[in-house]
Amino acid sequence: MQASLKMKSGDARPLQILIVDDHPVVAEGWGRIIRTKVACEIASAPSASEGWRSWRQARPDLMVVDLSIGRNKIAGIRLIERLRRVDPDLPILVFTMHRSPVLARRALMFGANGIINKDSPPAEICEAFSEVARGGNYVDSRLAMQIALLNVSRPGTSAPRLTGREEEILGMITEGMSYRDIADRACISYKTVSNVSLVLKDKLGAANLADLVVKGIRYFEGD
Prior knowledge:
It is built from 10 helices and 6 strands, in the order βαβαβαβαβαβααααα. By secondary structure, the chain is of the alpha/beta class. The protein is globular. The model has no long low-confidence stretch (mean pLDDT about 85). GO terms for molecular function: DNA binding.
């Protein structure tokens, strides 16, 4: 039997959920799983920009956000960061195909309340959803351990520390965007993009732009 899930406010009405994912089949499948357990109304958005607009129009009770949207490996993280600036209490669950503890940690740092992998069993997906919808947090034990280990220093190893702007530009570089297109999208000058690219090459040890793309992908995947 389908039941309403009370939010932390005590409201028992059907939940309004917005899924931001560029794969309609995934969004539909996720919706079918949740509807078997919770009375809810689900809307979807195929891009981060559409997700932002839909949130502003509908103000849903909960957001489900994919990390990689299109070719941008951190589009979901940037959307979470943007949402958190204006709505610190919105429950946000990351639903992703990536198992990278690096990306998972960044999503949590920028404000996600929980993370669940797309190939998780339906029961686990429902558990993660229910916990986040109630105002809690959810990360499965294996991923939580991997995230914890990232904070343990090992002799002779050090992960490069990138600023938010550097990560944003690196993400667009890994998409194959030109410096001019990056400058237009980020509303900065071409020279700034070029300078940041030089810093990124130095921090990641990349010999050239092609090498930076490869190292950027590895950076976001946590390899």
